[in-house]
C-alpha cells in the first residue's frame, strides 16, 4: 500500500471538491458551500453536529463476534479482535480511524479506504483516503473504477473499501448532509459575512448630520471631512450653522442577525438528524426527556443508528466468513449510579448474571473467603445507618404501613 500510494500528505485532510445537491442547483447568490465544502465548518452548528456524531461513534468500541454457520440462531461468540479492528491503520488507533471515517461520511458522503492484505489474502489494514483525491467513475462495461489523483493511477477495485452516505438509486457515490443543506448553510454564512461588514462600516451609516438650511455637495463634503477629522483626533465636536449630529442606534440582535442564525441552527440540525438542544440550539417542540438516559437513547436510535449499521456492515465484509463486528453502545447509554445499582440487583435476582460478573465489570478481583464470610453477615439491603431495609421486588417482607394512626381522645369530649 505504501509503495502504491506513497506517503499521502495530511496537511489538508479535506480540501475542495463538490457534489452539488442536484445537477444545476442554483445557490441564489449565497456563499457556495458546494464549491468548497470545508467552508461549511465555519458555521458553528455544522462543526458541533459533525463533532458530536463522529465523537459519539468513535467513543463506542468496535467488537468482533462469530456466528455459527450451521446454526445461525445460536448466540454469537465474542472473539479476540484482529489487528484490522484493534488498529485499522498503522498510523492511528481504532477511535481515531472511526472518527476520521465518520467525518468523511458526514462532510463528503463517502468513506474510501485501500485494503492491505496479509499472506492469506485477509484484510490486515484499511488506509482511509481523502475522498476529494479519488475520482469515481463507471466504465463502459459497468465496472466502477477508482483513480487516485495524487499519482493519477487506478486503484485495484478488489483493494478498494467504499462506504456511502446518503445515496440515490443508480448513483455510485454518496451525498453528505452538507451537500443537501448547501442553500441553508449559504444563507447562514452570508448573514455572518453581512454582519461582519456591518461592523466594518459596510452596512448602514453610523450617524446623520442634519442642517436647517440648504447644503450643496461641496459644503456637505467639507462638513463631513471636518467631523471625521475631529473624531480621529478624539477632540471635542463643535457644530454650528444649524447642524445637528444624530448617531444611529441599532439593536445588537438586529445588527448580528441573531434571529436568522438561531433559526438556521434548527434547520441545520434537521439535516444531520441531531436534536437542536444537544448543540445548544432551541429546545422547544419535539420530545422532552426527564433524564439523560432517555435523551441518549433517542440520540442513539434516531441519529446514530443508521450510521453505525453502515459502518458495521462495511467492516464486517472484510472479515472471514461467519465473523462480524458490532459497536458496543453501553458506553453511550451509561446509567446514573442509583439506576445502575437497581438494574444490577434485578439482574442478579432474576439470575441473568452472577455477582462475580458484576465485580469483574467494575474492575474488582474475585472475593476471598474472608471477604465472602464478611459479606454473608451483612443483610441483603441496608440503609444509610446500616439498618436492614426491605427491598421491593426481591421476595422481601413488605414494608410496614407508614399511615399515621388515628388519635384517641381519652376524655371522650
Question: How is the secondary structure organized here?
Answer:
Blueprint: H1 2-5, H2 44-58, E1 62-66, E2 77-78, H3 83-86, H4 94-108, E3 110-117, E4 123-129, E5 134-138, E6 144-148, E7 153-155, E8 160-164, H5 177-180, H6 182-202, E9 207-211, H7 217-232, E10 243-247, H8 252-255, H9 258-272, H10 292-316, E11 323-327, H11 337-349, H12 355-361, H13 369-376
Antiparallel strand pairs: 1-2, 1-11, 3-4, 3-8, 5-6, 6-7, 9-10
Helix pairs in contact: 2-4, 2-9, 6-9
Task: Please tell me about this protein's structure.
The protein has 413 residues and is of the alpha+beta class. It has three domains: 1-203 and 251-334, no CATH class; 205-249; 337-395, no CATH class. 37% of the residues lie in helices and 13% in strands. It contains 13 helices and eleven strands. Helix 2 (44-58) runs antiparallel to helix 4, helix 2 (44-58) runs parallel beside helix 9 (258-272) and helix 6 (182-202) runs antiparallel to helix 9 (258-272). The termini are far apart.
Main attributes?
37% helix; disordered N terminus; 413 residues; three-stranded antiparallel β-sheet; 13% strand; disordered C terminus; 13 helices; alpha+beta
**Multimeric organization:** single chain
Main sheet overview: 3 strands, antiparallel
Uncertain spans, ≥5 residues at pLDDT below 50? 1-31, 252-256, 390-398, 406-413
Mean pLDDT across residues: 76
Global structural class: alpha+beta
What proportion of the residues form beta strands (DSSP E)?
Answer: 5-15%
Short summary of the structure?
The chain is an alpha+beta fold and 413 residues long. The protein folds into three domains: 1-203 and 251-334, no CATH class; 205-249; 337-395, no CATH class. The chain is built from 13 helices and eleven strands.
Amino acid at each position: 500500500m505504501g509503495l502504491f500510494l506513497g506517503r499521502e500528505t495530511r496537511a489538508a485532510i479535506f480540501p475542495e471538491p463538490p457534489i452539488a445537491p442536484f445537477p444545476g442547483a442554483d445557490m441564489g447568490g449565497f456563499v457556495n458551500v458546494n464549491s468548497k465544502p470545508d467552508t461549511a465548518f465555519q458555521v458553528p452548528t455544522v462543526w458541533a453536529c459533525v463533532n458530536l456524531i463522529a465523537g459519539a461513534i468513535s467513543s463506542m468500541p468496535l467488537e468482533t463476534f462469530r456466528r455459527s454457520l450451521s446454526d445461525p440462531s445460536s448466540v454469537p461468540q465474542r472473539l479476540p479482535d484482529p489487528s484490522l479492528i484493534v488498529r485499522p491503520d498503522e498510523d492511528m488507533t481504532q477511535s481515531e480511524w472511526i472518527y476520521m471515517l465518520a467525518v468523511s461520511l458526514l462532510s463528503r458522503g463517502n468513506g474510501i479506504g485501500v485494503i492491505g492484505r496479509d499472506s492469506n489474502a485477509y484484510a490486515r489494514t484499511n488506509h482511509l483516503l481523502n475522498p476529494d483525491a479519488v475520482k469515481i467513475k463507471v466504465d463502459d462495461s459497468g465496472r466502477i473504477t477508482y483513480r487516485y489523483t495524487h499519482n493519477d493511477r487506478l486503484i485495484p477495485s478488489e483493494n478498494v473499501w467504499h462506504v456511502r452516505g446518503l445515496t440515490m438509486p443508480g448513483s455510485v457515490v454518496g451525498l453528505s448532509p452538507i451537500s443537501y443543506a448547501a442553500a441553508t448553510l449559504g444563507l447562514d454564512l452570508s448573514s455572518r459575512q453581512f454582519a461582519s461588514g456591518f461592523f466594518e462600516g459596510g452596512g448602514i451609516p453610523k450617524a446623520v448630520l442634519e442642517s436647517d438650511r440648504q447644503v450643496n455637495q461641496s459644503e456637505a463634503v467639507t462638513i463631513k471631512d471636518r467631523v471625521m477629522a475631529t473624531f480621529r483626533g478624539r477632540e471635542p465636536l463643535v457644530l454650528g450653522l444649524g447642524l445637528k449630529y444624530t448617531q444611529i442606534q441599532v439593536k445588537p440582535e438586529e445588527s448580528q442577525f441573531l434571529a436568522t442564525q438561531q433559526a438556521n441552527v434548527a434547520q441545520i440540525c434537521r439535516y444531520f438528524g441531531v436534536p437542536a438542544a444537544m448543540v445548544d440550539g432551541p429546545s422547544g417542540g419535539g420530545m422532552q426527556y426527564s433524564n439523560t438516559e432517555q435523551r441518549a437513547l433517542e440520540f442513539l436510535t434516531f441519529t446514530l443508528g443508521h450510521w453505525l449499521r453502515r459502518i458495521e456492515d462495511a467492516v464486517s465484509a472484510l472479515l472471514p466468513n461467519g465473523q462480524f463486528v458490532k459497536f458496543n453502545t453501553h458506553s453511550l447509554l451509561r446509567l446514573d449510579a442509583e439506576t445502575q445499582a437497581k438494574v444490577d440487583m434485578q439482574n442478579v435476582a432474576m439470575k441473568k448474571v452472577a455477582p462475580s460478573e458484576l465485580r469483574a465489570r467494575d474492575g474488582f478481583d474475585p472475593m476471598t473467603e474472608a471477604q465472602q464470610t464478611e459479606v454473608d453477615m451483612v443483610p441483603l439491603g441496608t440503609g444509610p445507618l446500616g439498618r436492614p431495609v426491605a427491598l421491593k421486588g426481591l421476595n422481601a417482607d413488605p414494608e410496614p404501613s407508614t399511615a399515621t394512626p388515628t388519635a384517641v381522645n381519652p376524655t371522650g369530649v
